[in-house]
From TrEMBL:
Protein's UniProt name: 6-phospho-beta-glucosidase
Any GO MF annotation of the entry: 6-phospho-beta-glucosidase activity
First-level EC class: hydrolase
EC number: 3.2.1.86
Membrane-spanning segments: none
Keywords in alphabetical order: Glycosidase, Hydrolase
Active site: 379
Sequence similarity: Belongs to the glycosyl hydrolase 1 family.
PANTHER family found in the cross-reference section: 6-PHOSPHO-BETA-GLUCOSIDASE, GLYCOSYL HYDROLASE
Amino acid sequence: MKATNTNQFPKDFLWGGAIAANQAEGAYLEAGKGLTIVDLLPAGENRRSIMKGNVPSLKPLDGEFYPSHEAIDFYHRYKEDVALFAEMGFKALRISLSWARIFPNGEESSLNEAGLQFYDDLFDELKKYQIEPVVTLAHFDVPVELIEKYGSWRNRKLVSLFELYAKTVFTRYKDKVKYWLTFNEINMLLHLPFLGAGLVFKEGDHRKQIQYQAAHHQLLASALAVKAAHDISPDAKIGCMLAAGSFYPYTCNPDDVYKAMEKDRESYFFIDVQSRGQYPAYAHRFFKDHGITIEMELNDKEILKEGTVDYIGFSYYSSRTTSTDPEVIKKMTSGNVFGSVSNPYVPKSEWGWTIDPKGFRITANQLYDRYQKPLFVVENGLGAVDELTPGGEINDDYRIDYFRQHIAEMAEAIEDGVEILGYTSWGPIDLISASSGEMKKRYGYIYVDKDNEGNGTLKRIKKKSFSWYKKVIESNGDIR
Ligand code: BG6
């Protein structure tokens, strides 16, 4: 284990945690909120297929359990939770706004003052403790009425509706929020298209065509939001957000190496546009080979050019591995949304996610080499089962271990010359797992008393990692 000393981290490094409206707030129809994507994602085995776009109904169904409807009730308990984050010394809290809380049906006429007020109150609470908000505009979030009416992001109409939403919140919160992100894990659109972009498919759809057209619309919307943020508040810093984790070739066979490059490009594609302001050269070949034609309007290229991001936000949980050998491909890791071949050199979590701290350093270096813009680690963490001792404690040494190793590699990346603005680990308080809908898959320094079926008191309990992370922040990065 490398020891970090505290000088690697800049003085104003933004240590903290990240949560999202859809997995924390609950109160799914309260104070005028409309339905959003996750409100249609049940717990259990149908969830994965729905997230992929096979959506049986745009209304919640009787007899199903929808974990987001109550989630961890952050909507009502945010003061208690923010006080706990402050106790750990958080410098930053990443949240997302719920689009459907602010525009319940997505259209201008539905603007909901109660929704705007909720976030005003939350920002004021953060300010009380000098916690900097880092705010994502869309974290797996589209008002369901826009899915019904327009087919979500497959329709260009969403671009102007999103721009309206973005301008509304930039104007309202310009004195309270400096750091923004446009779309959470924008590349998720290719893997779980309903979760990432509200896309619903029918039999016979040319899915790739629809996905990349929707991607074009999100990229335009992101660029317009960046421009609006800068116009409304010149000090604002607005970033993109990639579900990162570099691909390794399984062997040094050039075919494997080429495939790993292609797999990385699948994700870089989005950030290449958001950061460089134009479609990368390789995209044209890709579109031709897959029979994809992107419908563009005359000034789209200009919009993309003018709306490049200030920093690169990314999540890192795992590296990924790929191969061209059909025998090797049989050994996929379970549970990994991004489809990775099992890497024999690194362990896996209880959910089959590769644990590869060195991969964090590699990924950060590659992103920085490619974009030469500051990075912001807006998610990283270990989803694990936590057991309460008879005395009511949670000794999550495995989580401390995970963080120790990852923070050590982040420090190395900084030594390598990578500029990193901050680190907000995922789920500082246990919340609903996006991929599985479980509560049992816990990421927090704070335990929430709730189980997979929705039973529990919702009581918050500090885990062992709570005081450990507090010390890391206090010392600006000492992980001992
Ligand atoms: C990222 C998302 O994919 O990973 C979060 O931005 C998500 O919303 C996190 O919760 C961890 O994934 P999971 O599936 O374990 O909750």
